[in-house]
Amino acid sequence: MEEDAGLFPSKELMGSTVEDEADQLEDPEFEVKCGPLGLENAATPVHSCPGEERGSDAKRVKAPTAARDRVWASQLRRSLDLLARVHEENDLFLQKSRGELCACRHRMDLLSKQQANVAAEVARERESSNMAAVGRLQAASRRLQLELEGERNLQWSIAAELQQSESAMWHLEIKKGQLENIWKSNHEEAEARDQCLQVHAAQQLHREEEASGKAERNQRLRIRKSMRTQRELGLRHQKLVEDAQKNHRVAVKFLKASLGRVREREQKAELESREHLQQRMAAVLALKNSITANREMLRKFQAWDRARAEQTEQQAQTEQQEVLAQGQDAFKHLVHQRRRQELEAQRRAFEEEQKLRKQEIVSRILKEEAQERSHRKRQRPPAKAAALRTLRDRTWSYISTFCEGKASPTAAGHSLDSKAAIDPMSLLLFKVSSESMQMAPGTTSPEEETLAKPEIPGLWSEDLGQSQGPKEDVDRKPVGGTKMDKDILARRLEQLRSRVVHKQVASGREFKGRPFNSKPECVHFKAAPGASHKDFDVGKVYKKKITLINATYTLNYCKLVGVEQHLQDFIRVDFDPPGPLSAGMSCEVLVTFKPMINRDLEGHISFLAQTGGFSVPLKCSTKKCSLSLDKKLISFGSYVVGETASRTITLTNTGGLGTGFQILPASESSKPGEPQSVLKLSSLFTYEDRNLYERPMAGGVSESMLEASTSSPPDTQSQKESLPSELEGAPTASGVMATPIEAQAEITLGEVTEGDIGPFSSVRVPVVFTPTVPGEVHADFQVVFKNPQCHTLYFRATGVAVDVPVWVPKPNVDLKICMYDRLYQDSVLVHTRSKVSQRLRFEVCKELRGHLELLPEMGYIQAQASCSVQLKFLPRQSLPEDAGKYFDKDSHVLEAPMTIWVANQTKPVGFTVHAIVTTSDLELRPSMVDFGHCTVYEAIRTSISLCNHSLLPQEFGFVGLPKFIDIQPNDGFGTILPLETLQLDVLFQPTKAKEYSFQLVCKSEINRCFKLSCRAVGVQPPLELSHYQIKFAATALYDTSVASLYVTNSHLTTSSLPRVVGSGDLCPVGPTSFEFLLPPDAPITISPSVGTVLPGKRCLVRVAFQPTLPHQLVIQEALETVDRETQSTPLQKDVATQRKDVRAQDWPGQAPAHQKQELEVRDDEYQAARATVARTFQGRFDKFVVPCVVASGDVRDRNGLEPLSFSPHNTLYLELWCPAVAPAVVVTSDKGKTVINFGDIAVGHCSIKKVSLQNTCPEDLALDFSVLSPRGPFFLVNTPSKLLAGKTRVLVLSFSPQESVLSQEMLEIITKRGTLTLTLVGTGVASVITCSLDSNILDMGYVLARESVSTGFKLQNDSSLPIKFSVQLHSLSSSRASDRQELPQFLISQPRRTDIVGTQNLSGQSVFSVVPVTGILDPGKAQDFTVTFSPDHESLYFSDRLQVVLFEKKVSHEIQLKGAAREHMMFVEGGDPLDVPVESLMVIPASDPEHREEAEELKPILLTLNYVQLDADQQGPPATRELQVGCIRTTQPSPKKTVEFSLDGVTWLQHKGFSIEPARGSVDRGQTKTISVSWVPPVDFGPDQPLMVSTLLQLKGDVKENYKVIFVAHVVTGL
């Protein structure tokens, strides 16, 4: 204590305090925190004078003085605290010292008593002469004396220390007394500062409350603004939704129209494809017929050839007979005839060759012309391109000419011989082509065949015509022709090739323009009103002539080029070139038109002049209907209501085709002779006009008006023209417009509404206007036609109807929704345009006179003024019966017509009153509420329905409620919407045990009352709970929250117990039992759940809440996780199939049995799935109501399993609020598993596991850890104190088993948000390795120097862990160098150590080596080791130690390695050691000649034989010793294969009592032989002196060695 007191002298205490305080003052945080305190201290300084506070100097000195005062006060407080601590420590030391002193004195008393007792016993034993006991007692007395002296010394030391401590305590008391006054003043100052701080805190709290109130008001204002904004957004959204729905309806209409057009287009395409297919089939059939005809024709030709050959042969025979008959030489005549035939054949061949050459020339020319033509077509626009007359035209003209008999005389005058000489193939081709042209389907004349189509497309193409067309032209002329013809042909071909257009210049002016003018300018084939042929008939031929006039300055030529390709089948142009034409001269062209199809055709007839080409337009128009109206708008002007006006509109047909028509209103759609159809909107409007009907059109154009039908889509231009006229009648701000139905009723058509209109005629249709309602009226009409090619025509009729002078601007008075028996008023405004005053009388229909009233009933209205009438509506309950037809009972709509009679006016003015009359009834369901039995400690809630049968919202409220009734929400007040049913909760909590019967009154805003009858029974149970509702804090998953409550039996006397309702029995006083009935699968534990409470006692009940995840949810997550893993691994297909089958099953109930078994086997999957679901857990709130049944009696007194009789009326209810949240700290490593399994760890080793913890809550958490077992194998390496929000910390755990057992501990990580429990599991496994060696010594035997020998052993791992091993030699260890510094063993007097490492190689290499050095032993496996002994010199003391180290720590086995080396192949072992196992530092090589003799000296061998003689009369067993003579196996070549040995003087030794067997012999390589030596003392042997004799042992091998064997014999008489 003196040392402790001396360590803290007062000066040092004060100094250290000042230094510490100075350090604190330097800290900025300290300055900030102590600022207010310093100011308060400065206000009342200890060492300052009152006068200094007023001066300016005091202000400057104030701050340093206050700082010194604060430092001094802090030093004082620290000194006092230090003194208090030292005083307390000294006090404890004094008490301890006094206790030790008392114990020491007690022990001294005991020792004194024991010493006295020992002295008495010594005296008694001396008297009894028991010296052994006396000696023992004296020794005990001496021991007691020593202990007594030790206790006295200890007493003196303790007394000295106690005295010093008391003196130190006196000093501390003195010091404390000195500082006590200062401490009191300091304490008073601290209290004053605390009071100031409290005042300051109160002010700050007041300011903060004001600020919070202001913030709350601002928050409420923002909430109101946000609610208002939300309402506006809701209205805007509703409007957008309505607009979207409206647009959707319009879009649906357009979609239907578009789909209709698509279907029509598809049907049309299908019809076209069918027609094309039929045409192809017809062409194929025609081709087949043509082929058949050609085959028949070929057979005919062949028959003709055969007949001609037979005829020729007969003619030749006839001529031969005639020649023979005339007497001429028939052979000569035959030869001449054959020569003529050969010449004729040569002539025909020459002609054919000439024809072929001409054909080639013409084909080349035609090809060049075609190329030139195509080149010109590319250069010139297609409209002005002029084409030559095609070969097809020339072919058809030739055929028609030939058929009409206009063939050339040359062709007609061919003889039969020339015809017979024509090539049959050319004739066949000609006939086949003629037949194919005549066999066109539907043709009867050559003219009709001109428009026939080819059987195969491309058969009549231009390329085919080039190869066949020129043949007829060539045949018309003689072969070769004249020279002039050849020159003309050459020039013509040159002109055709050059295509040069000559410029015409006259009088210095070049002609530019059209070279020929045509009359008419356009050739138009059409029907005319005065023509004889009013209509065209398909198949007839029509001709027209045109005149071409030369419009150039000089001569010009004209050539016909042809018509366009699409007109060639219908138009034929006949033109005979007139040659050169002078200026103004003309020529005629005949154009023939044969219509084959009913379609308009347009084109040009192309000509070529010398100055260029020109063309004449050509049109072929079919008969059509050209319909039009003379006007599109009929304006009737202004008419008074009741008058009638009529107008006419003319329908004109300027076409040559008549049709039927029908005039309909625009709201209807009809077709003459066909059912009505709906016209699609898309056919009536174009894309540009869609915005017209997308705009809202209030009463302007109805849907029926837009859905007008027609057989064909109308023209877009006519639609655009008609739509603006249709929309002219849109309502404006200045006029009143009638609806389309009313307008059609006022503007109607006359008698002519349908009929037929002929070609070039017109029809007049009357339109009648009969106004009935004042205002502007318009009506739209449409004219539809039977001809589908005629578009629908539209026109509009408008008119203005002028009304009577008096009118009502609002003809419909809408009173909205009204209730029965409530008064509603409105005013009706009446206007007049008359210039005189009028008398008015207001009349109500008689059915409604008891409910409606117009005041005044009569009045006057001034000129051009207005007056108002008061309308009062008080609907009675009898309104539905009184109103009759004016009231709809289903919709509750009232439409009451009112009449205003005007004097001097026959037509009254009427208006209508509209109202929806509804009831004001509220209905409560059910009509009777029975709460049943309820204890006074609880409340019963039931739901009632409040239904509003009215179409208006009503405010309601339950008034006059008793104290034991509560209605929620809003305490029974609120607003109920129209036709809405509200659910209200009625809570009944009795205050006494009695029967209750009462009524609940609900009042509406119009003071109507609706009552609800209720009844209940109040019960007071014998037990009560201290808490009937427990609200657990938010508990993390798998954490536990515990709450406590008491079950109290407060009934001590019978008078305090109420009677049970329904019986006269009283609740007995005595033990009362209870039982809590938990709901199934609830995470709630109540302990005890069953118990008995004595009167006046209470029982503590603990309720624990531990939220868990649903088992089915965790199983499903586990299976999904495994399924994803198996799908990502294609090798595990079978497992994936099984998982999918399992997951395909439903999970509403419990999982199937095989799923549970699978998850039980794979518990790691279940843990990982549970962690995954826990991380994504969003929280859950459960509310449980646990009934507690009560029964009289003790549960321990029941007989067997007989239950107690629990009363259902006395049942108590405990309500538990159980919020479950996600854990604040979760494990993120190892898939979130909370079971940390270290696995199997070898005993004595350590395994480290790292666990990652993540803070999932938004605030930082302080971590605390439960204490692990100090003697257990688990250890927490690091203990983080804080876990930041959203961050992750790593927790390091270690497992170091000390025994082979399964270990398990629970580590709890405690935070303020919950507790996370980690389960630590590990198994310690002992490393068991067995060695194949029987002992720990491995002797390598003898080896020749510089040779080696190897041997092996095995190590087997018998444990369940793989073991890492390493093999170490002590000669290679780091401690080998220090061991060699010590003295050898033979120089040490006492054996302090054992030499492990013996002689080593001189080269520095280890004499022993082992492989392998390191490795791993698998469980149950063995490892072979090979030890190699490689000495480099001769020695008998090679040794080393081999250690097997496991896991680099534990030494499993130590094996002593030994070996000997010799320079020669023989050795002798046995006998007593005569030298030390340490070699000399000097090495003498065996090959040194100087030491050869020394090496050949005798080597001593000492054998000591001890003969044991136990009995002098009986001879004992002989003493025996053995010597081993061996031959070393070597790989070196040696002349000697064996070693021979022999002993000299065996006979002499036998006389001395020695027996040697064998005395001589030989030893093979690698073998040893034993020489046994036994000795029995001879008869004359004296046992006092040992016997010593010697003999010579010779060994002969590769060298000769001599050994001197010394026998020393002893006789031993006893052990």
In short:
The protein has about 1600 residues and is an alpha+beta fold. It contains 26 helices and 76 strands. The longest helix has about 200 residues.
Would you write up a description of this structure?
- The protein contains 26 helices and 76 strands.
- With 1615 residues, the chain is of the alpha+beta class.
- Helix 2 crosses helix 5 (56-127), helix 8 crosses helix 12 (462-476) and helix 20 (1111-1128) runs antiparallel to helix 21 (1133-1143).
Please give a handful of descriptors for the protein shown.
single chain; 1615 residues; alpha+beta; 6-stranded mixed sheet; 26 helices; 76 strands; 33% helix
Largest sheet: 6 strands, mixed
Mean pLDDT: 76
Helix proportion range: 25-40%
Strand coverage percent? 25-35%
Structural class: alpha+beta
Runs in which pLDDT lies below 50 for 5 or more consecutive residues are: 1-59, 381-388, 402-480, 530-535, 668-741, 1055-1064, 1131-1161, 1389-1393, 1486-1495
Shape: flat
Write the layout of secondary structure elements.
Elements: H1 2-6, H2 10-26, H3 28-33, H4 35-43, H5 56-127, H6 131-326, H7 330-379, H8 391-403, H9 409-412, H10 416-421, H11 424-438, H12 462-476, H13 483-498, E1 505-506, E2 509-510, E3 516-519, E4 523-525, E5 542-550, E6 558-563, E7 571-574, E8 586-593, E9 601-609, E10 612-620, E11 627-629, E12 633-640, E13 645-653, E14 659-665, H14 681-684, H15 690-694, H16 703-706, H17 716-726, H18 740-746, E15 747-749, E16 754-757, E17 761-769, E18 775-785, E19 793-802, E20 806-807, E21 812-819, E22 824-832, E23 838-844, E24 852-855, E25 858-861, E26 866-873, H19 879-883, E27 887-888, E28 893-902, E29 909-918, E30 922-925, E31 928-935, E32 940-948, E33 954-959, E34 965-968, E35 973-976, E36 981-988, E37 995-1004, E38 1009-1019, E39 1024-1025, E40 1029-1031, E41 1035-1036, E42 1041-1048, E43 1072-1076, E44 1084-1087, E45 1090-1093, E46 1098-1105, H20 1111-1128, H21 1133-1143, H22 1153-1161, H23 1163-1175, E47 1180-1192, E48 1207-1221, E49 1225-1227, E50 1235-1242, E51 1247-1255, E52 1261-1262, E53 1264-1265, E54 1274-1276, E55 1282-1283, E56 1288-1295, E57 1302-1311, ...
Parallel strand pairs: 4-10, 12-19, 21-29, 31-38, 40-48, 41-48, 50-58, 60-67, 69-76
Antiparallel strand pairs: 1-2, 3-5, 5-8, 6-9, 7-8, 9-10, 11-13, 13-17, 14-16, 14-18, 15-17, 18-19, 20-22, 22-26, 23-25, 23-28, 24-26, 27-28, 28-29, 30-32, 32-36, 33-35, 33-37, 34-36, 37-38, 39-42, 42-46, 43-45, 43-47, 44-46, 47-48, 49-51, 51-56, 52-55, 53-57, 54-56, 57-58, 59-61, 61-65, 62-64, ...
Helix pairs in contact: 2-5, 4-5, 5-6, 6-11, 7-12, 8-12, 20-21, 20-23
